Amino acid sequence: MTHSTLASLLVSILAYAPPVALAALGGVLSERAGVINIGLEGMMRFGAFFGAWGALATGSAWWGLGAGAAAGLASGALLAALALWARADQIVAGVAVNLLALGVVTFLLEWALGADGGITGPVPMLPALALGPLGRLPAVATGAMLLLPAAAGLFLRATPWGLRWRAVGENPRAVAAAGASVVRLRGAAVLASGALAGLGGALLPLALLGRFEDRMPAGQGFIALAAVVFGKWTPLGALGAAIFFAGSEGLQIELSSGGAGLASSIPRGFFLALPYLLTLLALAGFVGKAVPPAADGVPWDPEGR
Amino acid sequence: MNPRSRLAPLLPPLLALATAFALCAVAILAIGRSPAAAAAALAEGAFDGPMALGETALKATALVLTGLAVALPYRAGLFNIGGQGQFLVGAIAAAWAGRTLGLPAPIELPSVLLFAAACGAAWGALAGVLKARRGVHEVISTILLNWIALHLIDSWLVAGPLHASGASGFSHGGTEAVRAAARLPLLLPEGRLSLGLPLALAAALLAWWILARTPFGLELRAIGASEPTARAVGIPVPRRLVQAMALGGAFAALAGAAMILGGGTDYRYPENYRDPYGFDGIAIALVGAGHPLGVVLAAGLFGALRAGAIGLQDPTVGLHRSWPDILEGVAVVLIAGQRLFVVSGPGRRSQPPSAPGEDLPEAGGGR
Asked: Which of B148, B302, B319, B343 has the most A C-beta neighbours within 10 Å, making it the best mutation to test the interface with A?
């Protein structure tokens, strides 16, 4: 592999990893507080659509980014209402968010944007760095991807709020006994999770594609869910996993376009399935061991034992 | 309604459905269209004539089976999110076997169906084994297995080894069509109403019988009610978990096979198969309250809505075909949030519903 292929692989990773990385960070924040967020896919979808809509309506990609994050926050509020307030099964609540996003966004796409064939026209895009033959680097997305996980990692590890945040995912009863509200802490976590997933989703039209397509986010929310697990429920781990996953996809594109002998004979499907397969092996303890927070997915029941 | 009644578990989903219909009607009014015209168009698209009936039947067939794929493991306390992957595994298995086996006509179709079910059972059992042996949460593993199945089938099998040779003229992508002997016989001269629907209903009956009338089913429900108790009374919990997931996988795979062999996709596995029947199965199981009869009713309703949705796009109605999806999403949101609307005693505590009025051990710690 030549230097230029390596460089363009690096650029493609820095460009394509951010949506998954931010959604995965959202997943980490919510699961560390004890709420499994199966709804990441739907939240990214809301974020992507409202990001595009916001940018089209205001003519500014920045307002679009805000709209995407707000839509993600709102879908996080829905998940919080279902999983914490109504004490629904967290999985059912997440599935509900995904299903709702599927139908509602398809409808709004046609009704509000009149999109033909499920694709919008060009959407204003965030500023990017032109790197000549290597393509363009969506600097805002890449910057957010590198900064936010570091900040979240510091927050979780080095602040008193971060300690509580983690405690409520490991032993909520102890947190309640210490006088803090489990529902409020977990609610904050799910809202943050939704906002980050919405932000990640909004990057798809605003930083990468320059349009919204009805198939978005095409499973990236589920990749993010895998990145949470593969990254062992830490912000930097999830970032690393997102980068690794984007790399395996980028590598496959480089190899198939470069026409390298042996590697190009490996079917594309193997590269595409690799992130999920590795995550499954990690969960099963064959590649390291991924252990979730103790109270991850366990509904909070104040009257319970 | 008396909360001890056998039908009591069906009440929250029914209320949720009714509310979802009402909310959608209000939303349709709000955007200046007519809910009555929409309802008429839906009914016409779903039931008017053999073509419409065939579409409803085809979709209901897949939904009954993928609904069972979620509902049956659910009773053992397992949440099978993997219906979509198992559905695709069944579809590609049927497409391959229906092209390749070449058995005598009377045993060809049953063999292809059995082969597809076995492949789906193996795919489902993977998640069961990971859960039983390695403690991997089945929700995460089945989500991962969905995408592994999708990518391996789409970007390897269908793109490579199983790709139609194109010798018969132009290339259509996807696999070769299955042989005539492997196709589900059509029951009407017109439309796509096939033997698939009676088979799906028989599968629902079988699921009900397994759950309600066999020791195996009783053990599954006992595990769902309280795993520690089930262990304590000597039920081989790990083996039952694997078997429950295998059964779920087999049902979902039969749905995939029914789509391929029933003409839903021109009797071949298409280049990119994206029908989300496996994901829909989750909603069907929730709306059907995890009961085989409920699953059949929910699948019939949503099958008709999906088939009828074509009528919504008629200019006189002027609605998007995504309305049934919206209805499904709203209904599941309401079911998830049912505690906010339905007050019925202590309610369930994030455990799967136990069988209504059945002879479960009462000593469960989780209830």
From this structure: B148
